[in-house]
Amino acid sequence: MSHIAFTYHLVFGTHGRRPTIVQEYERELYNFMFKFLVKRDVYVWRIGGMPDHVHLLCDIPPKLAVAEVMKLLKIESSKFLSRNIHFPNWDGWAEGYGGFTVEASLRDVRKQYIINQREHHSSRSFEDEYHSLLQENKIEW
Q1: Stated pTM of the model
Q2: Who has greater pLDDT, 141 or 105?
Q3: For 53-87, how does the pLDDT look when each residue is reduced to its tens digit (9 = 90+)?
Q4: How many angstroms separate the CA atoms of 103 and 117, rounded?
Q5: Assigned domain for 1 exists
Q6: 141 falls within a domain
Q7: Which structural domain range is residue 117 located in?
Q8: Does 11 reside within a domain?
């Protein structure tokens, strides 16, 4: 029997980093994403974000490629947002995403980080946040 825990912190932005995720209705998007992922045996620890980006903390089973999960999630959530009257300015996701592994003992810390997005972004841009994540994970910009 295999015992595997692959927790990922995935971050992806809106096209042009425009604030097209309406805060008042963001839970509709997160609910759609949650259901989409659970159907594919992805365990979701937390989803959150801001009007111009989303953070996802999840365990993706080894039978699925992270890139394929992200590709399908972005395609299907974009369709959902395009058809939803609560997101009238939706024009797609930006190309690419950030993917970072999270040690099991640090999941709760990362969950809190996602929960506190509004607080982080009261004084910090998405670009600054993303650069910090890259530096923290020793990835060059």
Answers
A1: 0.91
A2: 105
A3: 999 999 999 999 999 999 999 999 999 999 999 99
A4: 20
A5: no
A6: no
A7: 7-136
A8: yes
Residues of the chain above pLDDT 90, percent:
79
**pLDDT for the residue numbered 22:** 97
If we measure between CA atoms, which residue out of 95, 110, 78, 76 comes closest to residue 8? 110
Whether 2 is in a domain gets the answer no
Overall average pLDDT of the 85-108 stretch: 96
The domain tally of the chain equals: 1
Residue 141: partners with Cβ closer than 8 Å, 6 or more residues away: 131, 134
The label of the residue with tokens 């949650």 reads 34
Instruction: Give the CATH number, domain containing residue 90.
Output: 3.30.70.1290
Q: Where are the beta strands (DSSP E) in the chain?
A: 7-13, 43-50, 53-59, 98-101
Cα–Cα distances (Å) from 79 to 87, 108, 111, 134, 138, in that order, read: 11, 31, 27, 29, 34
